[in-house]
Structures are given as structure tokens and as C-alpha cells.
Amino acid sequence: MPNPTRKEIIYAHDGLDILCERADKSAPSDVLKNYILKALPPRPQPTMAEVEWDDDKHYLAEAEHPEYGKVIMLGNCAYECIEVLIKRKSHDKYAVLTSNNLTPTGKRYTLTKVQE
User: Are both 52 and 94 inside the same structural domain?
Assistant: First the structure.
């Protein structure tokens, strides 16, 4: 079986959606769609390259990076990059990573003031 790229998988899902919209809404077309979906890999989650940065949603939000694992997004910067904090066991590290390698997880962190 071929190993489709992320982009090819997204195109296949988009193409299937378009075909199903144009097809007759009869039961056989739903059955065929389900057979096709079983053969397709799942649709990949959108990366930050496909999402417009919103401070309210993305500042201090968690994202998954293929090399660094879970990171905390800090801010959007030029050239399709995002400032992040990489969590390490020994120390945290600041980095700038390309947005097409960051997949939001839906989790967010909040800052709280600690009383001493």
C-alpha cells in the first residue's frame, strides 16, 4: 500500500467531500462513502500554518511538535514561525519553530499569581 503524504491525505478527504456533495443523497452513496473512508488514513489535524494566529486562543496554548513533543506557544513571529517554550526535564528552552510543524492539542496554560 502506498504511503501518502499529509497533503495527499487532505486532498483525498476534500475530494471525497466534494464528490459526496454533488452525488445523489441516496443510501448507496452513503455506503460507498463509508467504504472509501475506511480505506483512507484519518484526516490529519490542522497545523498552525493552516490556522490564523489569535492571541486569545493560541497564547500559552499547547502544541505537538514531531521532534520536541509538547511545546507551549508564546507568540506569532515573521516568516511563518512561532515562538515556543520547550518543556525539558532539566530546564525549559525558548525556540522559534516553523508553524507547519506545530499541531495544536486544544489545551491551554494560564498564569496565576502565587501568594508566598
Answer: yes
DSSP code of 75? Answer: E
C-alpha cell at 55: 492571541
Burial of 5 (0-12, 13-18, 19+ CB in 10 A): exposed
**For the segment 55-106, what is each residue's pLDDT rounded down to a tens digit?**
999 999 999 999 999 999 999 988 889 999 998 878 889 999 999 999 999 9
Tell me the whole-structure pTM to 2 decimals.
Answer: 0.73
Write down the residue that cell numbers 493560541 correspond to.
Answer: 58
55 in the same domain as 35: no
68 and 85 inside one domain: yes
Q: Indicate whether 116 belongs to any domain.
A: no
Q: Which domain holds residue 14?
A: 6-39
Q: Are 107 and 62 in contact (CB under 8 A)?
A: yes
